[in-house]
Amino acid sequence: MGVKGWLGWHFKMQKTSLNAFQALVAAVIDDVLESCKGDVNMANEKLLRLGSAMAETLLFEYSDTIGEHATTFDGFLDTFTLATRVMLGRAFDNAFYDKAERKIVYVFNECPICENIRMSDEFNGLKYCNILSGVFQHVLTLRGFSSVCEEVQCKTWGADSCVWELREV
Fold it and tell me: What pLDDT does residue 134 have?
């Protein structure tokens, strides 16, 4: 993190308790599953829409704090890396752009969204962290890019990491 990022993180950004954030996410997931009557595919779509609804507010907050935007699809690799660090207080463990497949991949080995959560087999395939997919996808839409973001691995399924793939379409 550069000097500007360090100063912004320590003096400008409001902080949220990680435990409070995770408790809120867990309550939202429970409510979504209940409203979808346990239908995992329907719940995944609803979580994606919730992330989309959050995107505009988060984009404006990020813009007010940082004031910079990516101008190319691959430029969002760094933009979302910094924004996620600022908003969630944790940097991705790995993030890269695959030029051949025109996709950005983000990896959390210790995911701040689902840390220490394990879903029962009844909800196999639930994309617990799909809210972040919705945020990424909708921010790109707001910035004039066409993309699809999918959580392809989740620690709640027993995977080693949470992984998102963001594809330009």
Answer: 92
